[in-house]
Design goal:
The complex is a heterodimer of chains A (252) and B (245). With 252 residues, chain A is α/β, with parallel strands linked by helices. Helices cover 33% and strands 25% of the residues of chain A. In chain A, the strands form two sheets. A six-stranded mixed sheet of chain A has the order 5-6-7-3-8-9, sandwiched between helices. Chain A is globular. Chain A starts with 10 loop residues before the first strand and ends with a helix. Chain B has a single domain, classed as MetI-like fold, CATH 1.10.3720. Classes of the chains: A alpha/beta (252), B mainly alpha (245). The interface between A and B is medium-sized, with 23 and 17 residues.
């Protein structure tokens, strides 16, 4: 059992996970994470890239403080100063879009809410219930909810998965815009290399289960100035680090 | 429309039954209606209905509040469930009459003993229903509440209780019908007033008309509560569900 969650100095997040294992149905321990260590500075956007099922979500759950059963130490902002966008939107179907956001941020000002809804194009859906929204819109509400608490650390668990390319791209832009305008440290989990290269300040490449950090790649060019060529160069740089162990789906 | 036709059919069957069995065994609907009106004019009906209704409401509220709290705890905390499960099985299988008689023996023929006897009879079914609801709570929403550091009471009010609403409604519905039936037995055995007491007197006098008059009047009261209180609450609680236009 573990929970050490206070960060100070320029490092906002310091993750050192020695081991995380689940008890499999056979009774044998199923090791998911092993010797993971990385840090994120205040305002940095880190991306964890790895094949499906390698333990990325488990890592986010540990950092979020939902899973305390691991060996190691995580230094992160305390609860209330971090937010998470889960893979599924996890909205309350009996509350409207606005009420879902206000539930976690009851003191949020009307102007802040209006700005947030404006950026995420949710204004006209303010009084709708989640059941009346498409998956893309529901994801936006989940993003709005996360930003509403003005977190120091934002955890994003594949927030664009199962959206069509155009919608995912639009949501990425909106997310980029929100991150740029705030000093929020962000950790994004994805298995989409293009998405990772487009959004990251730093990439952490994970091996298949049990996940380990294979390589760490910093992308020098600011997000808003990355051209198609620079994105390709960055991707090639990332791929250079991926020799054998990664899922072919990611390399593709 | 179909409901009205069904009700009409019931009245016709009642008339037929009365014709076959005779007025003394099964008085006609009009005879019973007249008896209701006579009792209402004297004020006796409203007094007895009021007394019974008060007992129903107090016992129901007590059983639902305590039963929901215990059911929620048993559904959420394995240790509490393991500790309480045997007790629950005992309570579920204890006949209502035994609980009532014991309550009167231990507590005397008092209002408190009567209310407790009714509440204890309802308690286990409320616990079982709410426990099932608590087991079906979505852990993903719990995690969301944890990540966003929602205070426990706030999470209980806005996340847990809305998920439990269908189970609470089911426990409430079945509870109301169970409680009022048990209240009548409690009144019959040990109270000096109420619909159950009146039915007891009518039983001793072989007055079937009076028995049916009081029973019918109370059914109408319960139907009114169902239509004017329970259904609007249910509609309000489920207004977020998508309906076809």
């Amino acid at each position: 059992m573990n929970d050490a969650r206070r960060a100070g100095g320029s490092e906002l997040l310091d993750v050192r996970i020695v081991r995380k294992a689940y008890a499999a149905a056979t009774g044998q321990p199923l090791e998911v994470l092993r010797d993971i260590a990385f840090r994120l500075a205040r305002g940095e956007l880190g991306v964890l890239v790895g094949p499906s099922g390698c333990g990325k979500t488990t890592m986010l759950r540990i950092i979020a403080g939902i899973d305390l059963d691991y060996d190691g130490k995580v230094v992160a902002p305390a609860r209330g100063r971090l937010a998470m966008v889960f893979q599924e939107p996890r909205l309350l179907p009996w509350r409207t879009v606005e009420d879902n956001v206000r539930l976690v941020a009851p003191t949020l000002s009307e102007s802040a809410l209006v700005t947030l809804f404006d950026v995420l194009e949710l204004t006209q859906h303010r009084l709708h219930y989640p059941g009346e929204l498409s998956l893309g819109l529901a994801r936006r509400v989940a993003v709005a909810r996360a930003f509403a608490v003005e977190p120091e650390l934002l955890l994003l668990d594949e927030p664009f998965v199962s959206l069509d390319d155009a919608l995912a791209s639009k949501l990425r832009d909106e997310l980029s815009l929100l991150v740029e305008n705030r000093t929020v440290t962000t950790l994004l989990v994805t298995h989409d290399l293009d998405e990772a290269v487009r959004l990251a300040d730093r990439l952490f490449l994970l091996s298949p289960r049990p996940a380990q950090v294979l390589a760490e790649v910093s992308i020098g060019v600011p997000r808003d100035r990355r051209t198609a060529t620079e994105l390709s160069v960055a991707k090639a740089e990332v791929l250079r680090h991926l020799r054998g162990p990664l899922d072919p789906a990611i390399k593709a | 429309m179909l409901r009205l036709a069904s009700l009409g059919l019931l009245v016709i069957a009642w008339y037929l039954g009365s014709f076959i069995a005779g007025e003394q065994m099964l008085p006609a609907p009009t005879t019973v209606l007249n008896a209701i009106l006579t009792e209402a004019r004297s004020g006796e009906l409203f007094f007895q209905l009021g007394v019974t209704l008060a007992r129903v409401l107090v016992a129901f509220t007590l059983a639902m509040t305590i039963g929901s709290a215990i059911g929620l705890l048993m559904g959420r905390v394995t240790l509490v469930n393991q500790l309480g499960d045997s007790w629950l099985v005992v309570l579920l299988n204890l006949p209502a009459l035994v609980i009532i008689v014991l309550a009167y023996l231990w507590g005397g023929l008092t209002e408190l003993a009567a209310i407790l006897a009714v509440a204890i009879n309802k308690l286990p079914t409320a616990i079982v229903t709410v426990r099932e609801g608590a087991r079906a709570l979505d852990p993903a929403l719990d995690e969301m509440a944890t990540v966003f550091a929602m205070p426990r009471l706030r999470a209980l009010r806005h996340i847990v209780i809305p998920q439990l609403a269908p189970y609470l409604a089911a426990a409430g519905r079945s509870g109301l019908s169970l409680v009022w039936k048990i209240v009548l037995i409690v009144e019959l055995l040990g109270r000096p007033n109420g619909v159950g007491f009146e039915i007891g007197i009518a039983f001793q006098l072989f007055d079937v008309t009076r028995i049916l008059a009081y029973a019918l009047a109370f059914v109408v009261v319960i139907l009114a509560i169902e239509t004017m209180v329970v259904q609007p609450i249910e509609r309000r609680a489920s207004r977020w569900r998508l309906r076809t236009a």
